[in-house]
Amino acid sequence: MKNKKIKKALKISLITIIVAFAFVVVGTIAINCYMVFVQGRHILTPEEWKEEDKKDMDCIMVLGCSVREDGTPSNMLQDRLDAAIELYKLSPQKILVSGDHAGPYYNEVRVMKQYLVDAGIPSEEIYMDHYGVSTYESVYRAYHVFDVRRMTIVTQKYHLYRALHLANAIGINADGCIARYDRYEGQFYRDVREVLARDKDFFLSIFWPNSDMPKQTISLKENGDLTNERME
Questions:
Q1: Which of 14, 112, 144, 163 is deepest in the core (most CB within 10 A)?
Q2: Closest listed residue to residue 133, CA positions, set 216, 232, 213, 188
Q3: In the chain, where does DSSP find H-type helix?
Q4: Cβ atoms 106, 130 nearer than 8 A
């Protein structure tokens, strides 16, 4: 009798685990399909972007990623920056670079700004968010710190869907332009991670937990060089 009860309990537990796993898998697929379908309509080619009315455009935002030890952008980051340079040449806009400035020896936004300046974009037109440690933080801070209400996001296509979802969910009228895409080293890991990150940010965009980063507001009407140093 006791063995039958144990077997029954194990069977119920197994069914519960299978149902829960199926629910997670189906939910993950549904969220990813939703983001790709809805936000895909906000992704423009440079030519389409050029034709857009920009009278209320606040900025182009470039999302950061890793930099090399020699102080140069990684291939992925360079492709994002090159795409932003292309857009700027089509229609000059202020540029917000958002990335991780983890300390004195790692500073994505400094590398990003220097690359843009070397390409001929005026330094005062480039604003640095030193606390863009995640896509969520970058979008959250664009809205709350830089008072952005309309922007174009530049990153690789696989990353754009999530970034655009966060931006449009928080109240920013956002479109996106795709950085040139290569199969970068470690891309399989990024693709898998992105599937899970979309789930995470989908729920974050419902609850919008407060950021622990400094929130001193910065106007994009001021000189971008005022943002060269990190706020503590």
A1: 112
A2: 213
A3: 2-39, 46-51, 75-90, 108-118, 135-144, 157-170, 187-207
A4: no
